[in-house]
Amino acid sequence: MRTSADRSAELLEVFRLRSEERLRKECTDEVVVSHDAAPLGPHDDRTQRVLRALRSLPVSGKHIVFSAGPDGPWRVAQIVLGMPGNLLLTEQSFEDYEDAMRYIFTARAAALQQN
User: To the nearest whole number, what is the mean pLDDT of the chain?
Assistant: First the structure.
């Protein structure tokens, strides 16, 4: 017998799929160029919407910037629940914080397009 919780779960999944599809459509080449030009902002409305949506995705599997020292170098890590410290450091290392942010944006946008 179906319950109201079953129906709520179905609706939540429909909402999630529609939201991801809309986000894929909004993550255009113009948004990528806008972010590459100024990773720290300010951003136009569309770029800000895409960034906010990418940042709000589930934590598990998300790429983040990890500081190896007080002023860099900057490393890219992926959050993997269950790993020691819940972080998996990648081989990517950057002397510039903005370059690390560009890399992460590209990784998040690529992951979005693959789903």
Answer: 89
